[in-house]
Amino acid sequence: MDKNIKKQSAFISEEESTIDWNEIQNAFKKTFGAEIYNSWLQKVTLVKEFNDYLILGVPTRFFRDWIVSRYLDKILEQVKQFKLSLNRIEFKIIEENKVNQELLKVSDLNKVTEIKDSILNYNRLNPNLNFDSFVQGKSNDIALSYSKKVCEHLSRYNPLYICGGVGLGKTHLLNAIGLELQGDNNVMFISAERFMYHFIKSIKKNDMVNFKDFFRKSSVFIIDDIQFLSGKESLQEEFFHTFNSLMDKGSQIIISADRAPIKLDRVQERIKSRLAGGLLVDIELPDLELKIKIIKKKIEEIQNQFKEQINLSDDVITFIAIECKTNVRELIGVLNRVVAFTRVHNKTLDISDCKKILKDVFNQIKVVTVDKIQNVVSNFFNISLSEMLSQRRSRPLARPRQIAMYLAKKMTTRSLPEIGRRFANRDHTTVIHAVKTIGRLSEQDDEMKKNIMQIKSILLEQ
Ligand code: ADP
Ligand code: MG
Questions:
Q1: Domain at 370-461: CATH architecture
Q2: Could you check whether the bond before residue 396 is cis, i.e. omega within 30 degrees of 0?
Q3: How far is the CA of 225 from the centre of ligand 2 (A)?
Q4: DSSP letters for 269-288
Q5: Which residues contact ligand 1 via a Cβ below 6 A?
Q6: Residue 110 has pLDDT above 70, yes or no
Q7: At residue 163, what are phi and psi to the nearest 5 degrees?
Q8: Domain extents for the chain?
Q9: Model confidence over 330-378: pLDDT tens digits?
């Protein structure tokens, strides 16, 4: 990451730092008010300034997500007043050395060894994802009630296995269980991905004894997104041993996954059958009634937190609930955008404003990949993909190639070297040159501007 920042900054070196972060911070204070400023904006630092975007530093992922969902529009609007060419903000997580005691829970903090220390940083429970903030509906009723029962009768339902598609509330429930039990128990809450990360790190450091001890000591073991184990043989083996030894000593295990145990691909049969040996509950897609309840609850939370009134008519709320079809995460994302819009424009929304916002949101959510860009661009210019990626330098091939590289930089999160590799292993300097050339042409040349706009809209529509 740092390396990339350096390379990119060489590329825009003609545009040295022009903004004064202190000045912008003062403006934030005025716009957001002291309370929000002191809790959030004050902790945002300027990492790097580019021609058209800023990289800002934030202490945690949670902090970043919060800022992005609630304040991003307003922040951008503010910084643009100091530098008009800015059109984007990226965040970089700069971990604080100090671990926030409130957010994590392992009962014995005094005996922290090196491995524990590194795991501690990830064993975080989010205080906001609790049972009170989880809205009950037909699709999650059973999962919610058994999550609560597990807390009352430890080891009766063991393991508790919660499954459901993305964004339906699995992590929220796991977190809520962790919060509920953390006072009296040694709670371990980890994602399967993190579990693997520590497993590999411990192997490399020849520290497996510590690893095993650490996980096997917990009396409540909560593991999120277990589908991540699929195809990873040695990890499964380790997990299986951890699982068995925890079950043997009567620890409660809670697991989440995006599918039922028998449907896990490339997971050993004996593991599947152990996973299925407890209680299986699933969360389904929310119905309209639940979606509306969730929106209302979220509005209430925002109002309480920021002590301000948010006026959304029942029509607008129902409209959002009907339009958001995929999951709760998307629903909340859309709602945050709508709320941000009412704040910025200081007006009560009608359905047609809502339609506009939703269209923007869905366009943004659309994932544009380098592959897709290459296909669309080569089609647009009527050349074959292999011609576009070839080493030939004639203009009818070179221009589309450069346009595709330019769009890959602008519309995906791939780094310059990664983009270079995707274009038949070209060097990142070639990509820089393309981005520069097309960037300049799209400002000076109307034909180029029009082409770029058209290609972009094709990419966002598909
Ligand atoms: P998953 O882990 O299943 O992908 P999450 O637990 O991360 O989903 O949920 C996505 C978002 O939706 C979170 O912000 C979560 O708090 C919220 N959410 C999901 N279901 C509910 C619910 N029933 N009530 C309130 N918030 C919910
Ligand atoms: Mg999750």
A1: Orthogonal Bundle (1.10)
A2: no
A3: 7
A4: HHHHHHHTTSEEEE-----H
A5: 129, 133-135, 140, 164, 166-172, 294, 328-329, 332
A6: no
A7: -125, 155
A8: 2-98, 126-283, 288-362, 370-461
A9: 899 889 888 888 877 777 888 888 888 887 766 655 678 899 999 999 9
Ligand 1 geometric centre to CA of 223 (Å): 16
Q: Which fold has domain 288-362?
A: Helicase, Ruva Protein; domain 3 (1.10.8)
The fold adopted by the segment(s) 2-98 is GMP Synthetase; Chain A, domain 3 (3.30.300)
Nearest ligand to the C-alpha atom of residue 258 = 1
- DSSP strand E in 79-176: where? 88-93, 160-163
Helical segments of 44-140, H only? 61-82, 114-120
Q: Whose CA is nearest to atom 9 of ligand 1?
A: 169
Mean confidence (pLDDT) of the chain = 84
Report the chain's C-alpha Rg in angstroms.
25
Dig out the tokens for 293 from the structure. Answer: 């309840």
Q: Which CATH architecture has domain 126-283?
A: 3-Layer(aba) Sandwich (3.40)
Q: Specify the residue for token string 């424009």.
A: 345
Ligand in nearest proximity to the CA of 170: 1
Q: Is residue 374 a contact partner of residue 344, using CB atoms and an 8 Å limit? A: no
CB contact at 8 A, 164 and 284: yes
